[in-house]
């Protein structure tokens, strides 16, 4: 079985080739804005902070990018990205943010299951993650991989899949379709997934503690932040932003 690193790096190369050919993953329908890559949907820590990652090798509206989301214990969200906020996550989530900025973000694998994310060389954030496969994540990946393309365009199916995935993964409430804070519709179409087995982070030099579910699950619009770390590989589709 291929490691998470091997699967993710192969998917990134394929997405970059598709982007070079003028498409971001699957064919873009109408005015959809499409992003192909992966994301750590959210890791809550005992400090009350939440960290999330988006790494899209291909985008239908601009260059691929990396974005790090940070929620402080008071519930305020900030997003850092490697491209202009108007071409990345704040395009859809900006109405719910305290700040959005362009920063240097690096991602480096130190093993087949472990990688590190640095924002501004680690001065803002240094975040280490270790992934693992479980029977449930393997089952969910197998189901996602067998889904016919037409079903990914069915919001009824996405709602049912999200409702089932949350409890199965022990992540609380999940939604794969809905509306983001800026009002656009979103669809998430995961192809593979892994659980975050371990994570530690230092924000501006301060340790965030251990991964721990929040007392109250948070959300941004209809996008619920999982109560445990999950890395999803696939495609995210939005109505036009701006």
What would you note in describing this structure?
The protein is α+β, with helices and mostly antiparallel strands and 242 residues long. The chain has helices spanning 4-20, 90-93, 135-146, 155-169, and strands spanning 33-44, 50-59, 65-71, 77-81, 97-102, 105-109, 114-119, 125-132, 177-179, 185-203, 206-207, 219-220, 223-224, 230-238. The strands form 2 sheets. Strands 1, 2, 3, 4, 5, 6, 7, 8, 9, 10, 11 and 14 form a 12-stranded mixed sheet that branches. The protein has a two-stranded antiparallel sheet with strand order 12-13. The mean pLDDT is 94.
TL;DR of this structure?
About 20% of the residues lie in helices and about 40% in strands.
Radius of gyration (CA) equals: 16 Å
Estimated share of beta-strand residues = 35-45%
Terminus-to-terminus distance: 41 Å
**Structure summary, number of beta strands:** 14
List the helices and strands and how they pair.
Layout: H1 4-20, E1 33-44, E2 50-59, E3 65-71, E4 77-81, H2 90-93, E5 97-102, E6 105-109, E7 114-119, E8 125-132, H3 135-146, H4 155-169, E9 177-179, E10 185-203, E11 206-207, E12 219-220, E13 223-224, E14 230-238
Parallel strand pairs: 4-5
Antiparallel strand pairs: 1-2, 1-14, 2-3, 3-4, 6-7, 7-8, 8-10, 9-10, 10-11, 10-14, 12-13
Defining key terms:
two-stranded antiparallel ribbon; alpha+beta; single chain
């Amino acid at each position: 079985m291929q490691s998470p690193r091997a699967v993710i790096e192969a998917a990134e190369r394929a997405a970059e080739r598709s982007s070079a050919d003028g498409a971001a993953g699957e064919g873009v329908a109408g005015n959809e804005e499409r992003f192909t890559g992966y994301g750590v949907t959210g890791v809550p820590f005992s400090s009350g902070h939440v960290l999330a990652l988006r790494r899209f090798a291909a985008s239908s509206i601009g260059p691929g990018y990396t974005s790090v989301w940070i929620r402080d214990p008071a519930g305020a969200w900030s997003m850092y990205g490697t491209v202009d906020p108007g071409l990345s996550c704040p395009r859809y989530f900006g109405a719910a943010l305290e700040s959005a900025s362009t920063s240097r973000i690096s991602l480096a694998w130190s093993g087949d299951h472990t990688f590190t994310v640095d924002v501004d060389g680690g001065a803002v954030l240094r975040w280490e993650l270790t992934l693992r496969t479980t029977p449930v994540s393997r089952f969910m990946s197998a189901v996602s991989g067998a889904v016919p393309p037409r079903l990914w365009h069915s919001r009824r199916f996405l709602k049912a899949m999200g409702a089932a995935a949350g409890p199965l993964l022990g992540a609380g409430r999940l939604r794969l379709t809905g509306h983001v804070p800026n009002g656009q519709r979103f669809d998430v179409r995961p192809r593979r997934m892994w659980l975050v087995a371990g994570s530690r982070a230092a924000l501006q030099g301060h340790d965030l503690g251990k991964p721990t579910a929040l007392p109250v699950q948070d959300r941004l619009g209809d996008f619920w932040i999982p109560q445990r770390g999950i890395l999803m590989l696939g495609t995210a589709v939005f109505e036009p932003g701006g």
